[in-house]
Design goal:
With about 200 residues, the chain is α/β, with parallel strands linked by helices. Helices cover about 30% and strands about 20% of the residues. Helix 3 packs antiparallel against helix 4. The two termini are about 35 Å apart.
């Protein structure tokens, strides 16, 4: 019997920080260039008046604009740090934080996978597979900062990195989530010893 890590809801302030990764903007999956018509939507103040679709606006009795933004399904990987030097209590908190982030991504209908570097690269797709693996995770790998580039090369996804106490490099394809007690550089997301993800 596998006992899954406890999940706690990710607060709105933390979700707001995660929004670029969860809706694809973090890696430029969307474009505002008028490349292909995606559809029409209600006019919002500030929209380009040249994009107003006059026939649709006349039919609806309200302004409608052409939408050229093409949403692409965002692809995210939640990375858990298996640094062999971290205490097991720290890994337990990181596993709970990773589980909560997986749930938030799943709830946002994002294609999410769980990734780690044990003795070698580990990837778990699917909710149950990821949770089963998290239930038995052990600190047996190198610090995540040493394998981050290799993980990104293999996944080609935006990485939400649940780190142990080691710092995570500031890269455009990384959203770091660090322990609250190691948040000296003022990161946007931290997790508590209980594994609750919070905005810093």
């Amino acid at each position: 019997i596998a006992i899954w890590p406890r999940i706690t809801p990710v607060p709105k302030a933390a979700l707001a920080y995660l929004a670029p990764a969860l809706d694809g903007r973090a890696e430029g999956h969307r474009t505002r260039e008028a490349v292909e018509l995606y559809g029409v939507r209600d006019y919002r103040p500030g929209d380009n008046l040249a994009h107003i679709h006059w026939k649709s606006s006349a039919r609806r009795g309200a302004l409608v604009v052409r939408e050229f933004e093409r949403p692409v399904d965002p692809r995210v990987a939640v990375v858990i740090d298996l640094d062999r030097t971290q205490p097991s209590a720290q890994l337990d908190a990181a596993a709970r934080a990773a589980a909560s982030l997986l749930w938030a991504a799943r709830d946002a209908r994002v294609d999410v996978t769980l990734v780690a570097w044990d003795e070698q690269f580990v990837e778990r797709r699917g909710w149950e597979s990821a949770m089963d693996w998290l239930a038995g995770a052990a600190p047996s790998g190198p610090p995540v900062r040493q394998v981050l580039a290799a993980i990104h090369e293999r996944t080609q996804r935006h990485l939400i990195v649940v780190a142990s106490s080691s710092p995570v490099p500031a890269l455009p394809w990384v959203t770091p989530v660090v322990p609250a007690q190691a948040a000296g550089t003022n990161p946007a997301l931290v997790y508590t010893p209980e594994g609750t993800v919070q905005a810093w």
